């Protein structure tokens, strides 16, 4: 009993820290002075481009990938010293879509499911974005964590409550898994919309029986005694892979090609750092996520990373990714998440391999 209470207290403290850090970051990241001070501590890995004077607002999420490295190191600010760059925190891809719709951001990290929604009716009427980067292919980094170790399959959750952030890749993977198991998310289980930073408290308060979520919250729930039941690796093996992607407002992209080239070069540099020096990259991820560097490095294993040259090729932005968006949209239509699915050309129109291609040159 003492051990569980201590663990619960630790998790509650971690949850509070996550919530508070999210509030502080959201306010601070809106200040250009923060970006400038970070850039002053960083050397650009290549010759800086002083000709770019773009003002860019970038939505980021607390996910252990290259975007966190770029943000922490101030690479964009160092390589584009005359640009004005603001980082805006988002809790999920749904938030990023909302920010785009309100005209509050120009670029943003979201999952492939939100990207598919953004390219489909009705969202496409209000948001015009393109996927220009694949931050990672999601594996065990997103999983369904259950409280009761006696639950060994999805059927064991019948009648239970499952939390996930709606309009996210985790939500998409959960719906897929339930459908494949023959469970109706509207009748057999209760699926609730919950931001990751709210999940630890709901878990401790016995308000939920399971959660499909990403790190660092996933690791917190596992440490508290949760069990991984199924992950995005399993849904990918079933033919529905998910990704964390970099997106851009298409009007912004048309006017800021040089900015996006440097942005993609910075992301490519971060991918190489993760692949070649994961411990060094983990130091930056740890700062952004508010976790231990060792934990940050361990979380890399749940994701798959690819450089610019590979991303620009036929397996990703240069071809297959548009098909993956279409497949995702078809499933979302079946679940009533969108109103209609466009043709293949519509989804290809919302994928742009240009920045990755230029970054690889």
Automatic annotation (TrEMBL):
Q: Where is the composition biased (Basic and acidic residues)?
A: 29-41
Q: Which UniProt keywords apply?
A: Signal
Report the principal subcellular site: periplasm
Provide the leader sequence positions. Answer: 1-26
Where does the protein end up? Answer: Periplasm
Q: Name one GO biological process term.
A: alkanesulfonate transmembrane transport
UniProt cross-references to Pfam families, sorted A to Z: NMT1_2
Outline the segment boundaries, as ranges, of region: Disordered: 29-48
Q: Which residues form a coiled coil?
A: none
Which Gene3D superfamilies does the record associate with it? Periplasmic binding protein-like II
> Record's Gene Ontology CC terms?
periplasmic space
**Transmembrane intervals:** none
Similarity section: Belongs to the bacterial solute-binding protein SsuA/TauA family.
In its UniProt entry, what is this protein called?
Taurine transport system substrate-binding protein
Question: Which taxonomic lineage is given here?
Answer: Bacteria, Bacillati, Actinomycetota, Actinomycetes, Propionibacteriales
């Amino acid at each position: 009993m003492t051990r569980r209470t201590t663990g619960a207290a630790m998790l509650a403290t971690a949850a509070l820290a996550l919530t508070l850090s999210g509030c502080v970051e959201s306010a601070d990241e809106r200040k250009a002075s923060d970006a400038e001070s970070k850039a002053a501590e960083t050397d650009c890995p290549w010759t800086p481009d002083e000709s770019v004077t773009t003002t860019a607002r970038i939505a980021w999420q607390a996910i252990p990938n290259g975007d966190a490295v770029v943000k922490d190191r101030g690479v964009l600010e160092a390589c584009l010293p005359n640009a004005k760059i603001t980082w805006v925190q988002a809790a999920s891809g749904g938030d990023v879509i909302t920010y785009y719709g309100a005209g509050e951001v120009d670029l943003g990290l979201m999952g492939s499911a939100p990207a598919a929604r953004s390219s489909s009716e009705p969202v496409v009427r209000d948001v015009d974005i393109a996927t220009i980067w694949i931050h990672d292919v999601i594996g065990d980094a997103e999983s369904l964590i259950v409280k009761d170790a006696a639950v060994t399959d999805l059927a064991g959750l019948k009648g239970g409550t499952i939390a996930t952030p709606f309009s996210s890749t985790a939500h998409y993977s959960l719906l897929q898994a339930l459908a494949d198991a023959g469970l109706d998310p509207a009748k057999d289980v209760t699926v609730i919309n919950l931001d990751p930073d709210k999940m630890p408290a709901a878990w401790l308060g016995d308000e939920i029986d399971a959660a499909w979520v990403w790190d660092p919250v996933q690791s917190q729930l596992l440490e508290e005694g949760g069990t991984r039941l199924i992950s995005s690796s399993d849904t990918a093996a079933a033919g529905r892979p998910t990704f964390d992607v970099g997106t851009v407002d298409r009007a912004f992209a048309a006017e800021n090609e040089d900015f996006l080239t440097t942005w993609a070069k910075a992301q490519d540099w971060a991918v190489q750092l993760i692949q070649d020096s994961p411990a060094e990259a983990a130091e930056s991820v740890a700062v952004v996520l508010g976790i231990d560097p060792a934990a940050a490095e361990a979380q890399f294993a749940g994701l798959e990373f690819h450089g610019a040259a590979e991303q620009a090729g036929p397996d990703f932005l240069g071809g297959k990714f548009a098909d993956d968006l279409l497949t995702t949209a078809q499933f979302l239509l079946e679940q009533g998440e969108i109103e209609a699915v466009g043709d293949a050309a519509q989804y290809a129109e919302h994928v742009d391999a240009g920045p990755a291609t230029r970054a690889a040159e």
